[in-house]
């Protein structure tokens, strides 16, 4: 937010507070100042900034100095709002995504109780003290945006259909990376090379880099699989088709400068998945698969392999379409990674629809429950690799019942090695909350071969004393129990019992 915008917002809040302190309505202030009601209203909303003579007149009416009127200082009551404006958080908040006007938000805060404004000030300090990175904040906002829309965006689905129609792709046709590469080269003048890793050592961990220009150069990592290439080509076509100017120039992004950059990356990723995994085709395949009486890893893997998509793309696409077409809206998506042979497992991506479910990535320095199929599948993958028997991504299923909770999830997981590495594996999981709708929709839910396991969030929080795969003591749980006993003892002492 520019200095001029800050001045307008703070000046407007100041005029409104002074007017209210003097017990004046907009009409009464208009009569005293000769400034129209509509213009005063625009001033108070931070949309207009009056000329010096008008400011001097208002200062005289409110009995304050001209210098104070034009300063960035607000009264004690509104000081936290001034901090909010100066902190640049308002500029970083993508309020338009949620249909909120900046002036309206500040107006609400200006009339809020003092304690609420103190809370605003506290949140700002917490963000500063804990070093909250702007890009983490943007991605958190994006996840909320996805949840608002149940991760289905009809406008992007329609854009994908129009793109396919304009390029004469039928609903039954599956687009490969080679097909998408030809469109980029022949229709949009792209030059594409596959020497990122060999010729650009400092960029070797990236998947792709775009050098813009009249004839854009897209440099790809040579270790990418054909399906990973297809996804990146689809994203480039998304930037072109959707006419986005604000964009990432590397995959993944090295630097995040704005929420528009994050949002546009999400939209072109969605677009890419939608043209590679067409909506109607996948819905048709899912209807057949979910009507199967028994879970089949082979049939699930065959459905994934039917598209030129990575397992992660495919599982993400399920989060778009399952809530929309099958009414299963309480779900989560997780991606874990592990260096083979090491104990640490990292949760590197998550999305939760319809509320926060377990597990989630807010747990620091704790060990995720080794009973989840999302993690046990790593052992299966490692065993196959050691025996030189790995041929395709693994798929597995589990019913997970949370200890101490009524929540139960049907979880489908896939695991595969990370491309270009020998010892890094990752898994992706789709978790669907078990409810009457799910039991009716997924016919293989009652398949007796599906493992049922009690799980928890982390070893440090788990009360299961007989767990054979525990990798850490339940120190958090023990601390909570110790604190509870201390509270109970204190209550008894105070009550004299």
In short:
The chain is of the alpha+beta class. It has 21 helices and ten strands.
Task: Walk me through the structure.
With 497 residues, the protein is of the alpha+beta class. Helices cover 49% and strands 13% of the residues. The protein is built from 21 helices and 10 strands. The chain has helices at residues 3-21, 26-33, 37-44, 52-62, 66-70, 79-86, 89-92, 102-110, 114-129, 134-148, 154-166, 177-188, 196-199, 226-241, 259-276, 279-290, 297-305, 311-326, 373-386, 436-441, 475-495; strands at residues 191-193, 208-211, 217-220, 250-251, 331-339, 345-352, 394-402, 408-417, 424-433, 451-455. Helix 6 runs parallel beside helix 9, helix 10 packs across helix 15 and helix 11 packs across helix 15 (259-276). The protein is globular and about 85 Å long. The mean pLDDT is 86.
- Termini separation comes to 60 Å
How many extended strands?
A: 10
| Global shape | globular
Q: Profile the largest sheet.
A: 6 strands, mixed
The tally of helices reads: 21
Q: How big a fraction of the residues is strand?
A: 5-15%
Write down the domain tally: 3
SS content category = alpha+beta
Helical content stands at 40-55%
Q: Residue ranges: pLDDT <50 for 5 or more in a row? A: none
Radius of gyration: 28 Å
**What is the overall pLDDT average?**
86
Strand order of the largest sheet: 6-5-9-8-7-10
């Amino acid at each position: 937010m520019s200095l001029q915008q800050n001045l307008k917002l703070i000046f407007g809040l100041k005029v409104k507070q002074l007017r209210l302190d003097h017990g004046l309505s907009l009409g009464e202030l208009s009569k005293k100042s000769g400034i129209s009601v509509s213009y005063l209203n625009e001033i108070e909303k931070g949309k207009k900034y009056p000329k010096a003579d008008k400011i001097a007149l208002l200062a005289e009416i409110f009995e304050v100095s001209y210098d104070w009127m034009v300063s960035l200082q607000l009264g004690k009551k509104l000081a936290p709002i001034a901090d909010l404006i100066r902190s640049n958080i308002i500029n970083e908040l993508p309020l338009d995504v949620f249909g909120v006007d900046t002036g309206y938000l500040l107006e609400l805060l200006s009339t809020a109780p003092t304690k609420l404004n103190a809370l605003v000030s506290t949140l700002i300090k917490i963000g500063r003290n804990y070093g909250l990175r702007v890009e983490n904040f943007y991605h958190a906002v994006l996840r909320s945006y996805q949840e608002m829309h149940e991760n289905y965006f009809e406008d992007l689905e329609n854009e994908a259909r129009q793109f396919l129609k304009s390029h004469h792709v039928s609903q039954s046709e599956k687009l490969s990376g080679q097909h998408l590469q030809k469109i980029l080269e022949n229709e949009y003048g792209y030059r594409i090379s596959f020497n990122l890793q060999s010729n650009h050592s400092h960029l070797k961990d990236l998947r792709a880099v775009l050098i813009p220009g009249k004839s854009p150069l897209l440099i790809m990592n040579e270790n990418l699989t054909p399906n990973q290439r297809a996804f990146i080509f689809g994203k480039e076509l998304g930037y072109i088709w959707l006419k986005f100017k604000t964009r990432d120039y590397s995959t993944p992004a090295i630097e995040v400068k704005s929420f528009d950059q994050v949002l546009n990356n999400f939209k072109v990723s969605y677009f890419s998945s939608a043209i590679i995994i067409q909506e109607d085709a996948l819905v048709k395949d899912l209807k057949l698969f979910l009507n199967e009486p028994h879970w089949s890893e082979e049939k699930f893997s065959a459905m994934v392999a039917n598209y030129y998509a990575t397992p992660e793309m495919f599982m993400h696409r399920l989060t778009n379409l399952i809530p929309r077409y099958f009414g299963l809206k309480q779900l989560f998506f997780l991606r874990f990674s592990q260096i083979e042979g090491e104990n640490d497992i990292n949760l590197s991506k998550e999305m939760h629809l319809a509320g926060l479910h377990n597990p989630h990535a807010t747990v620091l320095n704790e060990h995720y429950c080794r009973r989840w199929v999302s993690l046990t599948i790593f052992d299966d993958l490692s065993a196959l690799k050691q025996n030189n028997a790995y041929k395709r991504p693994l798929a597995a299923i589990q019913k997970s019942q949370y200890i101490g909770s009524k929540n139960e999830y049907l979880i489908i997981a896939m695991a595969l090695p990370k491309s270009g590495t020998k010892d890094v594996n990752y898994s992706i999981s789709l978790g669907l909350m078990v409810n009457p709708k799910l039991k009716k929709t997924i016919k293989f839910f009652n398949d007796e071969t599906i493992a049922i396991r009690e799980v928890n969030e982390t070893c440090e929080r788990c009360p299961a004393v007989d767990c054979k795969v525990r990798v850490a003591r339940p120190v958090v749980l023990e601390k909570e129990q110790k604190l509870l006993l201390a509270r109970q003892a204190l209550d008894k002492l105070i009550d004299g019992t």
